[in-house]
Amino acid sequence: MRFWERALRRARIPLAYSEGFTPHPRISLAAPLALGVTSETEFMDIVLQRWVSPHWFTEGITQQLPAGFGIMAVFPVPITLPSLQSAVRFAEYRIEVEASCGREEIEAAIEQLLAREELPWHHQRDTGEHNYDLRALVEDVWVVDWPTDPAQDKSGQVGVVAMNLRCDAGGSGRPEQVVLALGIKEHPKSIHRTKLVLAA
Question: What H or E segment, with its residue span, contains residue 139?
């Protein structure tokens, strides 16, 4: 958020600010990324003091962005519309994992997970243990790419799975937890968000 604030200020975008003792720009990400997760599909609400054309906005901010950042599209919307944050329903991910098993085994693990009605789960937070139903947060999981080498030792080989997880006020699925539920004990080599699905 600090990065975007600096870029918007340098681009001389007429940002609107909150009221109160410590005013801050009225900008918010639809679904903030977890640490270490990359993405190609982020949405952001930016409230301005006055109307500017999407072209002027895009030209100005693009000049302030480093390599790896890009503006895909800009749309003017009424201030009365619900926030993007309240409209997000699902997030789609592409995850690289160590292929410690064969393709048939990972596909069977996915089938078993999706066939479950519930999957009690817990993980440790700073505030203590968090218990929830992991299955309720999983919409779909599928294999994108998996090694076909039948060798017993698959160490070092990488497989790719994708998943569509719930991401709303009722809860957000965590890709690394789903990977663990599939029986893959190694932490994912990479987690990349490929899509955010908004309410119709």
Answer: strand 138-145
Instruction: Yes or no: say if 159 and 184 are a contact pair by the CB < 8 Å rule.
Output: no
For residue 112, give the amino acid letter.
Q
> Whole-number mean pLDDT of the chain?
91
In sequence order, what are the beta bridge partners of 29?
44
Can you tell me the mean pLDDT for 119-141?
86
For residue 156, give the 3-state DSSP assignment. Answer: coil
The Cα 96–Cα 38 span in angstroms is 12
Residues of the chain with CATH 3.30.2350.10: 87-198
Architecture of the domain defined by 87-198: 2-Layer Sandwich (3.30)
- Residue 80 corresponds to which tokens in the numbers above? 């009365």
Q: How many Cβ atoms sit within 10 Å of the Cβ of residue 128?
A: 7
User: In angstroms, what is the C-alpha Rg of the chain?
Assistant: 20
With a CB cutoff of 8 Å and minimum separation 6, the contacts of 65 are 7, 71
Query: Among all chains, which residue has been given the structure tokens 């987690």?
Result: 191
| pLDDT tens-digit map of 131-185 | 889 999 999 999 999 988 645 555 678 999 999 999 998 889 999 999 999 999 9
Strands (E), 19-168: 27-29, 38-39, 44-46, 88-98, 120-125, 128-133, 138-145, 158-168
